[in-house]
Amino acid sequence: MSLRMLFLDFNSYFASVEQQRNPKLRGRPVAVVPMMAETTCCIAASYEAKRFGVKTGTMVAEARRLCPEIIFVEADHEHYVRYHHRLLEVVESCLHVDAVHSIDELSCELPTNFRKEDAAVRLAKRLKKKIRDEVGECLKCSIGLAPNRFLAKTATDMQKPDGLVVIRQEDLPECLYGLQLRDLCGIGERMEARLRAYGIHSVQHLLQARKELLRAVWGGIEGERMYERLRGREVYEPPTSRTTVGHSHVLAPEERNPEQAFAVLSRLTQKAAARLRHMGYFAGGLQLAVKYKDRSRDGGEMQFDPTQDTLVFLHVLGELWRQRLFPHKVPLAVGVTLFEIAEASTVTPSLFVEVEKRRKLNAAVDELNLRFGKDTVFFGGAATARNSAPMRIAFHHVPDLKVER
After folding, report:
1. Closest by alpha carbon to 230, among 181, 273, 277, 279?
2. Model pLDDT for residues 248-264, shown as the tens digit of each residue
């Protein structure tokens, strides 16, 4: 079987973008943080910082202890999205991008004339050079070539940074034996525990397991899919449907009071509502989440008739906020999630005059903000939080700069 997929993973992406933007950071240990505060953690680290043990999730104080020379940079997600789109353009000029998996991962199906190893490797090297020449020398990537997407992604993790790894059909399964179970996409802490409970303690054990056993471990067809993926076969992936739209925010020290926390929640709700409308969805429920400084949690949820109306969402938010269990505790982080998502084409909207007026109001607000910039028009509850909760990049979601700034 020839090579079929190319997977590309940009190494230490946020930190690499910062080093590309600022030559003074190149070759130095850099950590990207959500805000300049001692109470936060690193959301990315350059390879120079990783050599000292700094990684995603390392607290700022611990990072300073591990690496006294470390430089902290506040995240600028808008720049990361702009670089992402530039990188997509460069890759697309060489090879069609089949799927974007996250801000720093994408995959391409190799054309028939590039499926032999020599041709595929030449193409991968040309991609690396083009990225270096047209985007920047700091934007290094690891590329995996394999018979299917799963193994191509696995290959990108086998050599970092700036790796190029080929997994050949004839080298399977032995070439995977050196990996740990958690090195395989889809195996996290809980799945690893399940595998061990079934007597599977290594990748070699996993590869030797029968398909029926893996179905039992995964509790269904996903186990059979894993069996096939590990053998280099391409597996049909059912299309995923969106189930929620939401935003969360770790509060800055000056925002850690009930009044300002609620203002931030109002802003998050308005952002989520605008996204929902832009995507063509309705929501039938809203969930509030609050994390306090003492690590306790609070929140609740409420369901309602499917709607896109920001004012409905804000009303529900206010009700849930009043019902919270610990109104006097110090809030540390807040989040809003719209759920019971349905495509607009499947929802029969109300014909009441008041509902139609609201629809026009929301459309006018969206249009003004798109034309003149974010927060040109907003509902008053977010007035003191207009500069709070800036755009964030979720793991599997690349923000649309038009509606999510």
Report:
1. 181
2. 988 988 999 999 999 99
Residue 234 a catalytic site member: no
Pairing assessment for the beta strands 105-109 and 5-10 based on DSSP bridges:
antiparallel
* 166: three-class secondary structure by DSSP: strand
Whole-angstrom Cα distance, residue 324 to residue 332? 15
Query: Which is catalytic among the residues 18, 48, 105, 255?
Result: 105
Supply the Cα-derived Rg of the chain in whole angstroms: 24
Is the alpha carbon torsion for 49, 55, 56, 62 positive or negative? negative
- pTM for this prediction: 0.80
Q: Cα 12–14–16 angle (5° rounding)?
A: 60
Provide the CATH number for the domain formed by 245-385 in this structure.
3.30.1490.100
What's domain 111-229's architecture?
2-Layer Sandwich (3.30)
- Distance of alpha carbon 30 from alpha carbon 18, whole angstroms: 9
Per-residue pLDDT tens digits for 194-252: 999 999 999 999 999 999 999 999 999 999 999 999 999 988 877 766 789 999 988 98
